[in-house]
Amino acid sequence: MPDLSGIVKAYDIRGVVGDQLDAALVRDFGAAFALLIKPEAPAVVIGHDMRDSSPGLAEAFADGVTSQGLDVVSIGLASTDQLYFASGSLNLPGAMFTASHNPAKYNGIKMCRAGASPVGQDTGLAEIRDTVEQGVPAFDGQRGTVSERDVLGDYAAYLRNLVDLSGSRPLKIVVDAGNGMGGHTVPTVFEGLPIEIVPMYFELDGTFPNHEANPLDPANIVDLQAKVREVGADAGLAFDGDADRCFVVDERGEPVSPSAITALVAVRELAKEPGGTIIHNLITSKGVPEIVSEHGGNPVRTRVGHSFIKAEMARTGAIFGGEHSAHYYFRDFWRADTGMLAALHVLAALGEQNGPLSALTQDFSRYAASGEINSTVSDQVARMIAVKDAYADKPGVEIDELDGLTVQLPGGAWFNLRPSNTEPLLRLNVEAADRAAVEALTAEVLAIVRA
């Protein structure tokens, strides 16, 4: 039996095309997915990004699905949140071919049940892996059919219906699509809005010739920052490769933290639904639950990862959720993540008043943060224990282990140390009142981690 544990991840399938992932294997994944969801749905909706390998792999997956008697609705080129829209609006399970911001040699499959409900290790992905490893059983009934459907216009209209920009003042916005799927979706979503788009790298190119399509790496937003300042834009937006994440810079070209965006969007959603629940993961700024509470909302803290966010949203009926990684989840978008909808909220908030984005977001940026710092370690458990022991007996310290190790210090500073599930790494996030305090606490913790 093949061992697929190296490419079947916690939330998706991802590997090097031609080495770990080829058409024959992807066909088997399609057939196994069809077997999983056959009792629930008559068809599967499939979309793909702009990578050279994506159309062929999507076609192979469709062949596997139809070989088990289910139909396929192909939406062609799509962002991941456009695929979620199709899954939600058509009430069909879906599969998206993308490796997000990974280099060109990679590809992958993100799958969901009808209504964009995620398929992860605990919700079907392990079962799909087992079926493929053991050999997909043949189906002797009638094959399914493949039809094509363009949902881009419907997706754009749906988003614009959720955020009213009709009263916005004119805005000039630089958008860096990173040669990814934002170049496909942005022109249609923003058509007819009082927003002048200054496009950067809108040409779909899965080799990412200009920079890696990962806006959380500061090196990848340098061009955007320079262009915002050069043209005197009101803001800049950067999308990742499959355009489900969106990163924001203000009129000065300065990054706006995803925690500040989470707080801003939360306040707007709470204005529509007072008293609503807002989800935040445990390494977003503590300013997020503070601001949510101040606006009458109910903040709920979760582990890091979209499966945990979506599960808590379903359990609590939350209206919105945000992560430090610029993933934003909306109940009105089938609890799925869409950076595009978050971007529209930011622009609507900006356009409703006359001040600059830096002044608007200042109210939502209360603390200094380190960002995620990775350390390669030989023994994750031993280093975690060493850090815990160093702080456990200090007066006024509170420790919890919801996800890794979170240490709250007297005076408000805190840090979280989490092990990577796939690499010998520990990931550190620190927050404190100011930059000097962040740097001091970061150095203190890293001295133990890297001892």
TrEMBL record:
Signal peptide interval: none
One Gene Ontology MF term: metal ion binding
Residue ranges constituting the Alpha-D-phosphohexomutase C-terminal domain according to the UniProt record: 372-446
Cofactor(s) listed: Mg(2+)
Record domain Alpha-D-phosphohexomutase alpha/beta/alpha: where: 8-134, 154-253, 261-366
Keywords, sorted A to Z: Isomerase, Magnesium, Metal-binding, Phosphoprotein
InterPro entries recorded: A-D-PHexomutase_a/b/a-I (IPR005844), A-D-PHexomutase_a/b/a-I/II/III (IPR016055), A-D-PHexomutase_a/b/a-II (IPR005845), A-D-PHexomutase_a/b/a-III (IPR005846), A-D-PHexomutase_C (IPR005843), A-D-PHexomutase_C_sf (IPR036900), Alpha-D-phosphohexomutase_SF (IPR005841)
GO BP of this protein: carbohydrate metabolic process
Transmembrane segments: none
Family the entry assigns: Belongs to the phosphohexose mutase family.
UniProt protein name: Phosphomannomutase
